[in-house]
Amino acid sequence: GYLDWFALGMFLAVVVSWCRTGTRMPGPLRWLGERPLISWSFAAIIYWGIQQVRFPTIVGTLPTPLAAMTLTTFIPLAAAFVVAPIALAPDGGGLIRRILGSRPAVAIGTISYGIYLWHLIAIRQTVTWIADGVLPRSAAIQAGLVIALTAIAATVSYFLVEAPMMRWSAHFTRNRGLPSHGVGFRGRDRGSKEARDEVRTGAAEVDPVEPNA
Length: 213
Hints:
Elements: H1 3-20, H2 27-33, H3 36-52, E1 57-58, E2 62-63, H4 65-88, H5 94-100, H6 103-110, H7 112-131, H8 139-175, H9 185-205
Antiparallel strand pairs: 1-2
């Protein structure tokens, strides 16, 4: 399964959110976030090492359970080293953040969940078309078609499903009086500060308890 992928991603998300409350980031993670080349080198070494190992297979090309577990452990780890400098980079910092803040990158990020959901379906469909002779056996054509189909499906599902659900969720939380912070780190920071101020104000307004006579 992909539980370990989600676990590593959620770990980075929790660390970033935790630090947004004013908590200092742990030293090793801060060191890694400030040195993207080192983190990416770790990712490249792990990925290269996986490619060099001849894993035993069963039923043709299927890896054995031990080999499959090794692959599903180290490939997500390599991916985490790729993402870590982006997630853990200091605020406002660097070329990476500027690139990711560009309009094309933001657009891709907006439909990224749809890309995750649809890309395997697009790959399998193009494989079927190639096997049936509908498409020529060309990696370039298949890749281009997969990208196009995935982008179209992700965009449509975002506007028809994701965006309406997010608007409904925001409306629901407002009606129930629950805190609803805007999208983005700034909104969450502002919300966290307001929440802390409300706690302090509420504590200051509580009448002192008089001791019993």
